[in-house]
Amino acid sequence: MTYILGIETSCDETAAAIVKDGTTIVSNVVASQIDSHKRFGGVVPEVASRHHVEQITLVIEQALTEAGLTPKQLDAVAVTEGPGLVGALLIGIQAAKAFAFAHQLPLIGVHHIAGHIYANALENPMEFPLLSLVISGGHTELIVMQQDGHFEKIGETRDDAAGEAYDKVARVLSLPYPGGPHIDRLAEQSDGAVEFPRVWLEEGSYDFSFSGLKSAVINYQHNLQQKGQEINPSHVAAGFQQSVVEVVVEKTRRAAEEYGVKQVIAAGGVAANKGLRSALEATFEKQGIPFYVPSLPLCTDNAAMIAAAGYSKLIAGERSDYAMNGRPGMPLTSWTRL
Ligand code: KG4
Ligand code: ZN
């Protein structure tokens, strides 16, 4: 049995978890700071770092207590190395280094998006080749994995990430931060939808673009305002969501077909979106390709996913050294060769 301590502090959650054999959650502790950032309408990096400093030791201790394990029983420490806010990343990394050094454990730096992808391994076995739709506050990407630890990015956003667009549109509608879940709820309950454009880009492209859609929503609101008319927030939310979902689902479907994958998985905060989940489920049921999306707490930032990806790196022989630094713009690179 292999127990890995995972640590995640890349944004606004301070998280520690222990995962057995890369697949079984033994403990999973997340201290959210959302309430501290809400009044600013977004994450304030300095505030995030201060919270991480206050919480990190407590969160690691709690993960060990809930697991009923001592540090001696652990086999490695995995920590988010990037991308993310550098001051936030560094706190998790320093804690991981100190813990690994004190208990003489291997240290493994993990890419945050690899973590989101491997959140799936905690609930269903990953079968290769697979297609992963990564859709979060910082990323919107289609990634083909021919095997464990191998990533080929076939498409990505050229401007805003989907979650960023959700949060910006939510701000236009005066909804609280983070706006994604609020738009989701409004869209679900809506009895109508404003028609917004679909951005497909060049034929055959798996890239995305959401900034034009965001501008279309802002223009729509301004136009109505100038005419002295009220907007219907539910109709705007529903129209925006329909545009995002239609494009994301269709590009994912086409990619799954072209690459002949055995499995499609979704990952990241926006994968928590009810409209997106049900559209993906319906599409792949029709296609006859197994589709999985993590349960809600494993879609948003957590440390169990970092431990799960860390396990794949550990068995591939990957190790980080004590020179590891926070890498805000870290690229996702493969740790196995085809
Ligand atoms: O993966 P995540 O927790 O953090 C990043 O790594 O970015 O994703 C956060 C993003 C936020 O933009 C949030 O608004 C969005 O995920 N989100 C949602 C939903 N729940 C969270 N977006 C749409 N619908 C949701 N239900
Ligand atoms: Zn994330």
TrEMBL record:
PROSITE patterns with a match to the protein in the record: GLYCOPROTEASE
BP GO annotations: tRNA threonylcarbamoyladenosine modification
Domain Gcp-like intervals: 24-307
Gene Ontology cellular-component annotations: cytoplasm
EC number: 2.3.1.234
First-listed, main subcellular location of the protein, grouped into a coarse class: cytoplasm
Locations listed in the record: Cytoplasm
NCBIfam families, per database record: gcp_kae1, T6A_TsaD_YgjD
Protein name: tRNA N6-adenosine threonylcarbamoyltransferase
Originating species: Chryseomicrobium excrementi
